[in-house]
Amino acid sequence: MKALVTIVSAAALLLLATGSASHGRPAADAPCAGQIHINPGFERGTTDWTAGPRIVVLGDAARPAHTGRAYATFAGLDVTRSDLLRTTVTVPADCDLTVRFWVRTTTTETTRGDYLNVGLAVTGIPPKTRFSLAFDGGAQWRQYSMSSGTATTERTATVSFLASETAGNGVTTFDVDDVTFTLG
User: Fold this and answer.
1) Cα 128 to Cα 26, 38, 121, distances in angstroms
2) Kind of pairing between the strands at 172-183 and 81-91
3) ∠ CA 119-124-130 to the nearest 5 degrees?
4) Max CA distance (Å), the chain
5) Cα distance between residue 16 and residue 19, in whole Å
6) What are phi and psi of 150, to 5 degrees?
7) pLDDT digits 0-9 by tens, 18-75
8) CA-CA distance, 184 to 176, in Å (whole number)?
9) Concatenated DSSP letters for 11-49?
10) Cβ contacts of residue 123 below 8 Å, gap of 6+?
11) In which element (H, E) is residue 2 found?
12) Which helix H or strand E contains 7, and what residues bound it?
């Protein structure tokens, strides 16, 4: 009998020490790590993006993508217009979302008239334009970054690229590539 009590006591101590009960143990939380968008580089066209009618996905050897073979472009037409490219992702509770993207600007403009406004709207936070890029952005790819911050509840985050062009001021083309959505 004494041996049986010792074995049962040892098993109870082992369960307490390891926390390995067969029931009642909470499931592990989903990690806040990794890239969560299925088409960050536009390699699948506009899959998982909402794109305006003048958004074009190109794979042009003369004007190569930042990585891969494709990128989204707001083709300059020297007409007064605007066009929108956006996508929405889900941010788990207690996670921060970092959005990084690359932009290249080609222009004949000499004054600020054409813009690419980049916004981030997160559930519970008023939408905000994070970047307002103009003709002076440069013909080389440049990276930009923005973050959602953390919250105790699951949220959605919408990233938008809104290009505005004014007629008669020169032609500006904004190219966007590698829009990564990383949880941290």
Assistant:
1) 37, 24, 6
2) unpaired
3) 20
4) 97
5) 5
6) -105, 160
7) 344 334 444 455 579 999 999 999 999 999 999 998 888 988 888 899 999 999 999 7
8) 23
9) HHHHHHHHT--SSSPPPPPPPS-EE--S-TT-TTTTTTS
10) 155, 156, 157
11) helix 2-18
12) helix 2-18
User: pTM for the whole thing?
Assistant: 0.81
DSSP state for residue 167 in the 8-state scheme? T
Q: What does the alpha-carbon distance between residue 121 and residue 157 come to, in Å, rounded to a whole number?
A: 6
Are the C-beta atoms of residues 122 and 96 closer than 8 Å to each other? no
Local structure of 170: helix, strand or coil: coil
* Amino acid (1-letter code) at residue 123: T
At 10, phi and psi to the nearest 5?
-65, -40
**What tokens were used for 107?**
């222009």
Report the distance separating Cα 159 and Cα 86, nearest Å: 6
Buried/exposed 89-99: b ≥16 CB within 10 Å, e otherwise: bebbeebebeb
Q: Model confidence at 182, in pLDDT bands (50, 70, 90)?
A: very high
DSSP conformation class of 9:
H
Residue 137 per-residue DSSP state:
G
In Å, how far are 111, 163, 169 from 77, measured between CA atoms? 16, 12, 11
